[in-house]
Amino acid sequence: KRIEDALDDSIGDVWDFNIDPIALNLLPYEQSSLLELIKTENKVLNKVITVYAALCCEIKKLKHEAETKFYNGLLFYGEGTVDSSKVEGESQIQMGRLISFLQELSCFVTRCYEVVMNVVHQ
Questions:
Q1: N or C terminus of the chain: which is more exposed, having fewer CB within 10 Å?
Q2: CA separation for the pair 53, 78 (Å, rounded)
Q3: What is the C-alpha to C-alpha distance for residues 80 and 86, in angstroms, rounded to an integer?
Q4: What is the mean pLDDT of the chain?
Q5: Residue 6 contacts by C-beta under 8 Å, 6 or more apart in sequence?
Q6: DSSP letters of 41-101?
């Protein structure tokens, strides 16, 4: 009886992860490019809108990269070392491990600066 109830297709039931571990997301996905969406009779307006749209896409990608790549590293640096009896040189080892992360972060910040300057100049 419980199996029949779990497999029942009643419309009023809300999806429950314990009963149905798999869910389908049936959202439409549009596969048109940015240039196909921007079509007006005014060529200058087309160019301006295309530049702003490309900059918005770049900003969105930079935001995603910051959230996935840099936020956790910056938030949790030095966490987890609670004991007061640190080994000699442990802080230097942690900083050494952070150097490559900081180099990537520096390149990322430079790229963000360039994109923001491009937006301001437009």
A1: N
A2: 39
A3: 12
A4: 80
A5: 19, 20
A6: S-HHHHHHHHHHHHHHHHHHHHHHHIIIIIHHHHHSTTTT---S-PPTTHHHHHHHHHHHH
The amino acid that residue 92 corresponds to is Q
Tens-place pLDDT, residues 4-61 = 666 665 555 566 666 666 766 677 777 777 777 777 788 888 888 889 989 999 999 9
Question: Which tokens hold the place of 46?
Answer: 């087309």
Domain ranges of the chain: 33-79+93-121
Residues found in the chain: 122
